[in-house]
């Protein structure tokens, strides 16, 4: 049996498979101070040289600095383009749209007891417009989002009090959207708390902190909150399907040296740790031993183990942008970047302009690994490539690299489903309309099938313009993935 056999171009995806796109409030919406919305951690992440220090919690920034540029404040102005944007998704034939809730639109400080009516009304527009077009909403409750007031007063997810504040948000959303939204994700890329802790959990470190201990304690709070949110969702509407979400990507050993193979296994475990708990319902032994050995075991309250065990997720979603390559510390190897992860350069792969490896077969491997490990339905909720797009004099935009990337990844995903037997619910590409990059804060790192007139300095009209890939993705959806071929002149 060949490990790289393919299904062939004419094979469609299974009946019921959902195609669509994904965005995040803090990168897409804009309107950061409109209609009662409060300040969130994501509003304090500037573009430029200070961004990394802020999102990793090493530069305290709980107020706006007029000297900094904050691209998320206006995003791509989806706040004022809802109907237009969703109509474009519908024109492509999207059957699902993943978006996130801005926590501070619903509870501006996080401590209110009554949700902000204007915030709920905004998301009513999104949900109702989706449903009018036959698009299934897929809602991320918390996508790198924490009210600044809760960071300032209780330390963000350092504090167990965050669980109750988060559940209040969930209660408001679940009751308000019952019957209109089926699919929910509790936290976006929950494992990113270990790599971008301010972005992922509102953590700001102070001198003397044991940073690993702080991150694992915050992670425990988020994991308990996720389980309780799953419980609450099932109580409010038994038809709700609740998923977890993590940043995935198989880790290859740089060589067949046993030390490199073991290093790669450790990298995989770092990611699977969170999903082992959310899907299997308990801390895995390898994690318990690590936490005990390093004296960083989170404080757990009586009943936490039962909560985690009894309220596991219904499905597992993940982002896949690239695989990773890992070497033991004694191995000399060139380092590369990739979705906030540092990775060794893989000599067998090509790399994007931002240093992210391009590895379609790695998606097939990743899907198989996750399916084999958990045996729960999967959902690929982010996959795409950031490239620099050029508008031609006639206004057209050619983006062959994007189409090739997605064609090859969709083929690999199809193989994982049709040949390997993995159960996958759908695919939402990142992001179907250009938005602000989470890792760099740039607009020039574009992902969309739809161009937005906005530059890295914050200039532009926000006008939307279809790229060549727009019609290509529409054809992919119309044929249910049977025809992944590129337009004439784009094949290589």
Binned strand content: 5-15%
Any idea what the radius of gyration is? 21 Å
Enumerate the spans where pLDDT stays under 50 for 5 or more consecutive residues: none
CATH superfamily: Glycosidases
State the separation between the terminal residues, measured CA to CA: 27 Å
Shape: globular
Q: Biggest sheet, open or closed, and with what strands and sense?
A: 8 strands, parallel, barrel
Kindly give the count of domains. 1
The helix count comes to: 15
CATH topology: TIM Barrel
Q: On the 0-100 scale, what is the average pLDDT?
A: 94
Classified by CATH, the class is Alpha Beta
What class would the helix/strand composition place it in? alpha/beta
Query: How many DSSP E strands?
Result: 16
From the 3D coordinates, which CATH architecture would you assign?
Answer: Alpha-Beta Barrel
Helical content stands at: 25-40%
User: What strand order characterises the main sheet?
Assistant: 1-2-3-4-5-7-13-14
Short description:
Belongs to the glycosyl hydrolase 1 family. With 492 residues, this protein is an alpha/beta fold.
Written account of the structure:
This protein is α/β, with parallel strands linked by helices. The chain has a single domain, classed as Glycosidases (TIM Barrel), CATH 3.20.20.80. Helices cover 36% and strands 14% of the residues. The protein contains 15 helices and 16 strands. A hairpin with a 5-residue loop joins strand 11 (350-351) and strand 12 (357-358). The longest helix has 26 residues, at 211-236. The chain starts with 17 loop residues before the first strand and ends in a 14-residue tail after the last helix. 51% of the residues are buried.
């Amino acid at each position: 049996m060949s490990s790289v056999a393919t299904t062939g171009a004419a094979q469609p995806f299974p009946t019921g498979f959902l195609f669509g796109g994904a965005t995040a409030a803090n990168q897409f919406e804009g309107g950061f101070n409109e209609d009662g919305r409060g300040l969130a951690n994501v509003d304090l992440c500037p573009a430029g040289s200070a961004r990394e220090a802020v999102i990793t919690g090493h530069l305290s920034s709980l107020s706006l600095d007029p000297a900094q540029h904050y691209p998320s404040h206006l995003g791509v102005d989806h706040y004022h383009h809802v109907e237009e944007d969703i109509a474009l998704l519908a024109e492509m034939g999207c059957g699902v749209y993943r978006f996130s809730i801005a926590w501070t639109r619903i509870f501006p400080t996080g401590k209110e007891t009554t949700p902000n009516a204007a915030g709920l009304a905004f998301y009513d527009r999104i949900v109702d417009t989706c449903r009018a077009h036959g698009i299934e909403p897929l809602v991320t409750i918390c996508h790198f989002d924490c009210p600044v007031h809760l960071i300032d007063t209780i330390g963000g997810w350092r504090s167990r009090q965050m669980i109750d504040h988060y559940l209040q948000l969930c209660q408001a959303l679940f009751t308000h959207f019952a019957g209109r939204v089926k699919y929910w994700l509790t936290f976006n890329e929950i494992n990113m708390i270990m790599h971008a802790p301010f972005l992922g959990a509102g953590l700001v470190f102070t001198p003397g902190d044991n940073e690993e201990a702080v991150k694992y304690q915050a992670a425990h709070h988020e994991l308990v909150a996720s389980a309780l949110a799953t419980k609450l969702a099932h109580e409010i509407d038994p038809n709700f399907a609740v998923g977890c979400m993590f940043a995935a990507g198989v880790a290859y050993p740089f060589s067949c040296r046993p030390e490199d193979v073991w290093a790669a296994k450790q990298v995989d475990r770092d990611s699977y740790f969170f999903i082992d708990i959310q899907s299997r319902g308990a801390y895995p032994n390898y994690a318990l031993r690590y936490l005990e050995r390093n004296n960083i075991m989170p404080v757990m309250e009586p009943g936490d183990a039962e909560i985690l065990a009894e309220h596991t997720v219904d499905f597992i979603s993940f982002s896949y942008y690239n695989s990773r390559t890992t070497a033991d510390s004694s191995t000399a190897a060139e380092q590369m970047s990739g979705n906030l992860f540092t990775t060794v350069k893989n000599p067998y792969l090509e790399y994007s302009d931002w240093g992210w490896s391009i590895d379609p077969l790695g998606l097939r491997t990743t899907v198989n690994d996750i399916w084999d490990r958990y045996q729960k339905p999967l959902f690929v909720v982010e996959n795409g490539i950031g490239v620099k797009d050029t508008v031609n004099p006639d206004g057209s935009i050619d983006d062959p690299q994007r189409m090739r990337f997605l064609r090859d990844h969709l083929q690999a995903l199809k193989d994982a489903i049709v040949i390997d037997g993995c159960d996958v619910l759908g695919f939402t590409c990142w992001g179907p309309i250009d938005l602000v990059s989470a890792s760099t804060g740039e607009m020039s790192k574009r992902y969309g099938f739809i161009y937005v007139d906005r530059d890295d300095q914050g200039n532009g009209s926000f006008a939307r313009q279809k790229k060549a890939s727009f019609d290509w993705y529409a054809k992919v959806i119309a044929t249910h993935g049977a025809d992944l071929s590129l337009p004439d002149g784009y094949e290589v």
